[in-house]
Write a structure and sequence with these properties.
By secondary structure, this protein is mainly α. It is built from eleven helices and no strands. The chain has helices spanning 2-38, 45-63, 78-111, 120-123, 125-140, 147-152, 158-201, 208-248, 254-269, 271-277, 280-316. The longest helix is centred in the middle third of the chain and has 44 residues, at 158-201. Keywords: Cell membrane, Disulfide bond, G-protein coupled receptor, Glycoprotein, Membrane, Receptor, Transducer, Transmembrane, Transmembrane helix. This is G-protein coupled bile acid receptor 1.
């Protein structure tokens, strides 16, 4: 009975943290997905890649309540184990692969815009979509086929180490490297603009326009850096804490594990939402809908006030 009460309290804590976070992630992704579907001008290959990322992020939000449960020792049937372990891991890896693909596609657009339309992923979109969804499913399904048990006899926890240091960490470093290179390219272009501006103005000191450009670039660097730190550092902490406890073979508090896992996975799932909500084209349909609802509510309020004031005026007359 005591173990049942402890497990019940742990599940209550998990659901109390994950349900609001999961709901927010799902609704925000649906908002951006409907924005892309509503605007026909956004029906192109780059936005299809971003749409695939949003679907993966929404699925990650659906699986978020199950991820902290993966760290609990429970007796499960084979089918329940697939749902509780393989399915969330597949969605997480698919989200990561889609995120790398979106960053790579936009990175090439900035790096080599002249040959951007001839990218292999644009010419073979179904193949690119298969690449970001099939390998995560294959890798996440390996334990279901006994690969983890076979490799664990020679290399304990090989599956976890391979996923963390062979897939997850290289993907995060790749995203960070592409983002840093884009900022470096932007800095070089900004210097060229300032140099041309000075040659036209024939002045040696920075003008107000150059100072505004430098200030805007500084704000961009700060925003990108803070976003990266806020979205990825919690997950990196959670990942390496798990590895440290796995190496030391010590048990740790379930509450700590729940908080770290929910914070890490939740912060990482915010990345596509930041990219989507920052684009006005994605949020314009929702903004117009809210504006219409606000105008209609104000019109009803004004009409009701006029209707209530009408009889009073007649009585006074």
């Amino acid at each position: 009975e005591w173990e049942f009460n402890v497990e019940f309290k742990i599940k209550q804590l998990i659901y109390a943290i994950t349900i609001p976070l999961s709901t927010s992630i799902i609704l925000a992704n649906l908002l951006i997905i409907l924005g892309i579907a509503w605007n026909r001008q956004l029906h192109n290959t780059p936005n299809y890649f971003f749409l695939s990322l949003l679907v993966a992020d929404m699925c990650t939000g659906v699986a978020l309540p199950f991820i902290p449960l993966m760290g609990l020792n429970r007796e499960l049937t084979f089918s329940s184990c697939l749902v509780a372990h393989v399915f969330p891991n597949f969605l997480f890896l698919a989200f990561l692969f889609n995120l790398v693909m979106v960053h790579y596609e936009r990175y090439i657009y900035i790096l080599d815009p002249l040959h951007y339309g001839n990218l292999w992923m644009h010419r073979n979109f179904p193949l690119a979509l298969l690449i970001v969804w099939a390998p995560p499913l294959l890798y996440a399904s390996l334990p279901a086929f006994g690969w983890n048990n076979w490799s664990g006899q020679m290399f304990p926890n090989a599956f976890i180490y391979l996923e963390v240091y062979g897939l997850v960490l290289p993907a995060i470093l790749t995203i960070a490297g592409m983002t840093g290179h884009v900022l470096w390219i932007t800095r070089g272009q900004l210097k060229d603009i300032c140099r041309l501006h000075r040659s036209v103005e024939r002045g040696s000191q920075a003008s107000d326009h150059e100072q505004r450009l430098n200030l805007r670039y500084t704000r961009c660097v700060v925003a990108v850096s803070l976003t990266f730190l806020a979205c990825w550092v919690p997950y990196l902490i959670y990942m390496h804490v798990c590895i440290a406890f796995l190496i030391s073979d010590t048990k740790w508090s379930s509450t700590t594990h729940i908080i770290l896992s929910c914070t890490g996975i939740g912060s990482m799932a915010v990345v596509p939402l930041v990219l989507g909500l920052a684009n006005r084209q994605y949020t314009e349909p929702a903004y117009k809908l809210l504006q219409k609802l606000r105008d209609r509510w104000r019109r009803r309020t004004r009409d009701s006030n006029e209707a209530s004031c009408g009889p009073k005026i007649i009585v006074d007359l």
